[in-house]
Structure formats: C-alpha cells, structure tokens
Design goal:
This protein has about 130 residues and is mainly alpha-helical. The protein has helices at about 1-55, 75-90, 110-120; strands at about 60, 95-100. Strands 1-2 form a two-stranded parallel ribbon. Strand 1 (about 60), helix 2 and strand 2 form a beta-alpha-beta unit. InterPro entries: AB_hydrolase_fold.
C-alpha cells in the first residue's frame, strides 16, 4: 500500500515537473521573440536617430550683403564643416542647405524642408 502511494506521488510529481518545464520553455520562447523584437526596434531607432541627427546641418548664409543675414553665432564655414564631419562619420542622408535671411534663427522654408526630409526618412510619404 505504501509503495502504491509513493508511486502515485512520484507520478504526480513527474507530471507537475513536466508541466512546469513546458511552461518555462514557452515563456523562454516568448521572451526570445520579445528580445528579438526589442533588438529590431532599437536598431530602427538608431537608424532614425542617425538619419535625423544628420538632417540638422543647416546654416544661415555667412556672406554679408543687403539681402542676407549672416549667422552671428555659428559661422557658415563651421556649418559646412559640420556637414562634412557627419558625412565622414558614416551618417547617411546628410543634407547641408543654406537659407537666405536665416541668421541663427529659422524661417518657414527651412521648417518645410525639415518636415519633408523627416517625412521621407520615416516613410510617412509612402516611399519606404
């Protein structure tokens, strides 16, 4: 009689252990998928960051004429150099553009260009 109880307990314990093992394996599998998804999300975020960071290279024209306002904070040549450094540092899609009358401020034309650039880079225009 005692042997039957021991056998029954061992069988029950083995069943419970198998159930726990199955649950752990399922959760591990799920976590592996989540880690892969997280890895892909981080990679995409870095790509977007890489592209977005490169987009900010812009400057007001540094020549002083009646129709242009020079940037009195960042010299035009430094803006150009920043774009060169970004390009040589493996940043993709670097755009350096000067805007007449920008100075160290912003103008609607620049904001339109930044919005168009971001829309294209993030695939919001249907091209990606």
């Amino acid at each position: 009689m005692a042997a039957k109880k021991v056998d029954a307990l061992e069988e029950r314990l083995e069943g419970e252990m198998n159930q726990i093992k199955t649950t752990v394996e399922e959760r591990m599998s799920s976590m592996e998928g989540q880690v892969a998804d997280l890895r892909d999300m981080i990679k995409k975020m870095l790509e977007v960051h890489n592209q977005t960071t490169a987009s900010v290279a812009r400057n007001g024209e540094g020549r002083s004429t009646n129709s242009e306002i020079p940037d009195d904070v960042v010299l035009y040549k430094h803006g150009e150099k920043s774009a060169e450094v970004l390009r040589s540092s493996a940043f993709r899609n670097v755009t350096f553009k000067s805007y007449n009358g920008l100075g160290h401020y912003t103008v609607p034309e620049e904001m339109d260009d930044v919005c168009k650039w971001l829309t294209a880079r993030l695939g919001l225009d249907g091209t990606r």
